[in-house]
Design a protein that fits this description.
It contains 2 helices and 7 strands; from the N terminus they run βαββββββα. By secondary structure, the chain is mostly beta strands. It has a 7-stranded mixed β-sheet, with no helix packed on it. The protein is globular, with a radius of gyration of 13 Å.
Length: 104
């Protein structure tokens, strides 16, 4: 299930979150090209390509044990269907409890 956040950064960059357990995430190439940044609480580890600027995944504050993958950066053959759940990211603190925890 993917989450569409309406906070300023996510909505303007078109980020569609698919949070997966870190053990299920594998970066195949390009780690040496990643640049990181943080803001506000500095808990999330935002990563983007230092060459093209795309933000294809990051370590979210909401699920630090997971990886948030931008569904829009996946190849068409990766997923067959996606159910999208809206999330009010503009009021993150008030709504974080509505997100489901990652499976153990």
């Amino acid at each position: 299930m993917a989450t569409e956040c309406n906070c300023s950064i996510c909505s303007k960059s078109g980020y569609l979150h698919l949070i997966v357990p870190r053990a299920d995430f594998r970066l195949l190439q390009g780690e040496d090209k990643l640049v990181s940044y943080s803001f506000d609480t500095h808990e999330a580890k935002h990563l983007f390509c230092g060459i093209c600027g795309i933000k294809s995944f990051y370590i979210p504050r909401s699920h630090p044990e997971g990886v948030s993958v931008n569904v829009r950066c996946l190849d068409d053959s990766t997923l067959h269907s996606v159910q999208i759940t809206p999330f009010d990211g503009r009021n993150w603190e008030d709504n974080i409890g509505s997100l489901k925890p990652l499976p153990e």
